[in-house]
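Request: Not sure, any thoughts?
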Amino acid sequence: MTHAGPLPLSVAIVCKDGARTIARTLDAVRPIAAEILALDSGSTDGTLDMLARAGARVVPTEWLGHVRTKQRALEACSQPWVLCLDADESPEPDLIEAIAGALAWPAAEQLATAPEPVAFALNRKVWYAGRFLNHAWQPEWRTRLVRGRDVAAGLAAWAGTDPHDALRTAAAPRRLRGTLRHDSFATFAEQLGKQVRYAGIQAGHMARRGDRGSLASLLISPPGAFLKQLVLKAAWRDGWAGWLAAACAAQQALCKHAALIELGRAEQRPDAGGAAAHPDNT
């Protein structure tokens, strides 16, 4: 299927210093998007120049955490449909065609006027060392394409606990074929550092809701996370990268429960008003 010109689609991107990956994102969506909206939290690495060349509408914003910042971007879009992306995500050609097919007339007109909420989920795959990881973290269905009218009615909104946000809808999303490429990290060292920071954020949220760490969780959770990826997800089929992905999952579980134990022993209550660090600035 081919598509002629932009679709009635806004692409919402939340970014800060995403120059390593955002050019691919912009190149992928520019042919189909009537609007590219970027909420930028202070980029200094050339990201703003890339957005300008792509014709994006840039809205400077303070970083409010993952959920609140993405919700602000969602609500600022003007088109009947909204595709929400991170700066390190880019739809592959097969997914672009699936999106175009879903929003093409007359199907789009029927979906746009349907009384029930309408949303689509995309399967995200990590891209590492020149190829996809087809087993580690798979499948990873993410709701990312929603109607603007459902956003306005409160039937589609970002939710979750930072840093694990999710776009929630009042109806189950339909799944689109194709791949959402995730350039999450250039090296596993980068991924490990990010996971340590995210584990601390998770532990803080868990402590605020009254959870307490335990030696049992510290001992059981990391091996469980490792085996889930390696065996249940068959990450071993991704070769050495799959083994490293499983090790990363174990490390994040270890750091999360270790941080939770520390918070409990120190009898600290993290500041509930704090926002998680920006993912593109960590």
